# Entry
Amino acid sequence: MKVFKGNMIYTKEPKRFEILEQGYVTVDDTGRIVSVSKEAPEGIETAHVVDFENHMVIPGFTDLHLHPNQYPNDGLGYNYELMEWIENYATPVNGLYKNEQITRRIFSALIEDLWRYGILHSVQFGALDLRTNDILFEMMIDSGLYCYLGKNHTDYKKDRHEVETTQESMRCAQYLIDKWEGKSPRVHYIMTPSFAPGCTEEMMKWCGEMSRKYKLPLQSHLDENKKEVGMVLDRFTDCKNYAQVYQKYHMFGNDIKTVMAHCVYTTEDEIQALRYAGVYVAHCPHSNCNLGSGIMPLRRYLDMGIKVGLGSDISAGHTLNMMDNMRSAMEMSKVLYVEEGEMPLSTSEAFYLATKGGGSFFGEVGSFERGYLFNALVVEDDAVASIGGHTLEERIERFIYNGDDRQIKQRFVEGKELKKPVFEI
Ligand code: FE
# Structure
């Protein structure tokens, strides 16, 4: 048994922070929290006590949507909209991964940054190529971080230019599932059809079947950009909306744990379908802003009880900094407040999205509650806040608005400190 002592800050519910000043979190040998208390727990005299003194202790972050192989494109090409950006940036970057050493160097930098920003859990949209995914699986397992990772399926394109065949795409995924699923308690396979415009009907049907057969979750994109939605409606004339395409091929929630990125242009029927099927929404405010895609109706989703987490959407989003992603979510919600009167996202709600909201995709992570894994970050105040005079709620607000990775002093996974991953390349 271990007892962690410090200023514990978390969100059981979106509406408010739970703050335990100099509180105690007791963790069993499996890394699960057995008690959270203001008073010292019984048996503390004989327990291993870790004292974080005046630092803030918060749950580790979850990035619910990122494209690891696009990391070299961070910050590039945002004068384009989505479809042109894919053509000019997202697709050409795949050429880099023909060289294994470059592949390992890029993923080493990415994983180090995930660790640096306290992203202990991530849902990663893998590359097309088998070997690239193979290397990333190996490195993610070595890192000690949690992730879902899947091979991107993009077997449909009108002109068939630079596109994988359906059979080859399926063969790669089957190989990766056989090789990696079940190899690690922290790294799992997720079925990853790119998006309806990029997949054949045969592929989408197969992805749904594979999810059921192997009890795997599934990720894709939904209603990101107006042109994309138009392409879907033009091609799938038997479906009255985009979500219906995924429903038609049985890859939309219910018995399959599903996350859909963006969900900017959802119709009323699609919103009901998201809720009914229990589909997670990965809110990607940076990306939606960078590519001029639009503003997601976040308040509507939260009011309806739809599950939402934050996605950096690297590299249509430009940073893994989750504090920056929270800020962007709040800023964009305030634009909707000004334009449409929707109640803006509060600081505690933004924090909830980055911790428990997205974390629940991984089970009991993202909060300090009994039964949750102690996957946590130890945060130091910036120089001015550390002088004193601020309440803990003000200190965490300040970190969310002004904070960066330098203030994250330690990361804990299952009650043990996770040191910076080092890869020999
Ligand atoms: Fe994406």
User: Anything to note?
Assistant: The chain has two domains: 2-59+366-417, 61-362. DSSP finds 13 helices and 17 strands in the chain. The longest helix spans residues 322-340.
